[in-house]
Specification:
Helices cover 13% and strands 42% of the residues. The chain is mostly beta strands. It has helices spanning 13-25, 70-73, 213-226; strands spanning 29-40, 45-59, 65-68, 78-82, 88-97, 102-108, 130-135, 143-157, 163-170, 182-184, 190-197, 208-212. The strands form two sheets. A six-stranded antiparallel beta barrel has the order 1-2-3-6-5-4. Strands 7-8-9-12-11-10 form a six-stranded antiparallel β-barrel. The chain is globular, with a radius of gyration of 18 Å. A hairpin with a 5-residue loop joins strand 2 and strand 3 (65-68).
Amino acid sequence: MPIQAALGDTLLANEQKTIAIFERSNPSVVCITVDEQLPDYARGDFSSEMPAASGTGFMWDNDGHIITTNHMVEGSRSVKVILADQRVLDATVVGLSAEHDLAVLKVRGGDDLPRPAVLGSSHGLKVGQTVFTIGNAFGLGRSFTTGIVSALGRNFEGEENGVIRNLIQTDASINPGSSGSPLLDSSGRVIGVNVAIYSLSGGSDGVSFALPIDIVKQVVPSLLAKKTGKNKAE
């Protein structure tokens, strides 16, 4: 049934499709906040915490595992995830890959978790095809943006973790806080994980990079098997 606009006009078919992509994908996306430990000079210890960063992730499976970026959660004191229904849950870092800038979290507690995101394939992507993303831009909460695949096979040199290879370049608006957000195709399937932007201003300049989902599919199982991640709170 056509979606009705506020003024009574029927939305265009492409608008209805875009809205449907968001509504199907949004429940699987989580906003993430991490705290770092700070010295409490009055007490002579490191007991105080303050928010250090915000980011995004998405549900990987039915066991409560979440995919996000390594650079956001590495060395964190505590991690919390905010679900689409506004529930706030604690999470633990269970796997890290600096080479791919990937992290795997696991939600602690919580019933009736969101369904996993629908995974697509990055094989056969074409420059010019439409992409979408849902991210926690600037920590403001969920933002839905769109763009196109601008280039394939890009290499990006991060500040700390060296060169990340074979990335998808897009012009979808990715800002601080959107790290770890899913890159979606026109069917709402995850085709990449947004890991970096190239910016002279500190905001979106139209050049962002995503790790292809086919690489993610190879890395995540090994991280879950080895359980090499370590959360300082544990």
